[in-house]
Design brief:
The chain is mostly helical. It has 17 helices and no strands. Helix content is about 85%, strand content about 0%. Keywords: Cell membrane, Membrane, Transmembrane, Transmembrane helix.
Length: about 375
């Protein structure tokens, strides 16, 4: 939140404000594949610690530059790039570490807690960023530097394995990335579940814009965004319990159908609180889909491929994410908000039909149930 606010304060240019965020996302996406390969080669503990220290330094540099009234756009863009690179290394190393630290039977609970933390931070972060920025432009960046320092200390006390259990065969980076793609393509369940998750993520993200246009007023938009965040947070708190009730494959199918059935109901004209209520219910299922996919990745992927597989999947999800608001905006512009919502919901329903007829997702459920 503070990044675009400080750019707007400096330049009054929405284009430049968006540029900083786009540069950070692009850096993390583009470097995702080689970063995953490096995670499988390098000391994972040092990667985590180094990435946090880099982000402490970059955030502190922004705060100090603002205090000295000397912040420039090149400085901001450099921080966006460096932070994107640090994040592209941190998250595959983090994913590999979770698998190494957590026993298989506790992975659903671990990933559910991870979802809860991320969604709670996503819900509170923008409001906190705006509040801190109102107290002083440098404050959110200095506070962010402190949070990365806290993360650094936490990693110091975690027993993160330094290397994969089975050392990777010596190969070039291109060969290593190719090995990850070939392995992932041969995993029918991960391929089907990942494809379904990417489609659901794209369509659900795209549908937010026409819903915002439909509800109209700033107060109602605030209610919608709060409902999305609160529903995701509540869903993350029950996702581990859902995984104990349903096998992973079946959970993916049931959860996707639940979201697909709920979303078109937002167009019913039943008052200001109807759309937020429907969205809250729809988002209850979303975290369980992420948890189910995360657990299967952790269980199925060999340790020496963990970094590369996380890098490949990060690229797949990150590459599709920028298309979502563009898709939602185009449909809303040329068809209207309500037809856009119904059209995107219909596409989601078609994805559900295809997934339901997928023998991979149906037949995988009993095996995964026994594993959990």
């Amino acid at each position: 939140m503070a990044f675009p606010l400080v750019v707007l304060a400096m330049t009054a240019s929405p284009i430049q404000a968006g540029l900083v965020g786009a540069v950070a996302m692009a850096a993390e996406t583009i470097f995702g594949l080689p970063a995953g390969a490096l995670v499988d080669r390098w000391d994972r503990r040092r990667i985590l610690l180094g990435a946090d220290l880099v982000r402490v330094a970059t955030m502190a540099s922004l705060g100090l530059a603002l205090l000295a009234d000397s912040l420039t756009m090149p400085h901001l863009l450099a921080v966006a790039v460096v932070n994107g690179l640090a994040g592209s290394l941190f998250w595959p190393a983090h994913g590999a570490s979770v698998r190494a630290l957590v026993p298989s039977e506790q992975l659903p609970t671990a990933y559910a807690q991870e979802q809860a933390r991320q969604r709670a931070a996503g819900l509170a972060g923008p409001a906190l960023g705006g509040l801190l920025f109102s107290l002083g432009r440098a404050i959110p960046f200095l506070v962010d530097a402190v949070t990365y320092l806290v993360s650094f200390v936490c990693v110091v006390f975690a027993r993160v394995p330094r290397r994969p259990e089975t050392p990777a065969v010596r190969q070039s980076m291109r060969e290593g990335i190719g090995e990850a793609f070939r392995w992932l393509w041969g995993q029918h369940l991960l391929r089907a579940a990942g494809g379904l998750a990417i489609a659901v993520n794209l369509l659900v993200t795209a549908i937010k814009l026409p819903i915002i246009v439909m509800v109209g007023t700033p107060v109602d938009v605030g209610l919608v965004m709060a409902a999305l965040g609160a529903g995701g947070l509540a869903g993350s708190l029950i996702s581990a319990r859902l995984m104990r009730v349903l096998p992973i494959g079946r959970l993916l199918l049931v959860g996707t159908w639940f979201v697909a059935a709920a979303l078109p109901l937002v167009v019913l004209p039943l008052g200001s609180y109807w759309a937020p209520a429907v969205l809250f219910l729809a988002m209850l299922a979303a975290p369980a889909l992420n948890v189910a996919l995360g657990v299967e990745i952790a269980r199925a992927t060999p340790d020496h491929l963990q970094g590369r597989i996380h890098g490949v999947l990060m690229l797949a999800f990150s590459g599709a994410t920028p298309l979502a608001p563009l898709l939602g905006g185009l449909l809303t512009q040329y068809a209207g908000a309500v037809p856009a919502i119904l059209g995107l919901s219909a596409c989601l329903a078609l994805c559900c039909v295809a997934a339901t007829f997928s023998p991979t997702l149906r037949t995988a459920a009993p095996r995964l149930s026994q594993a959990s």
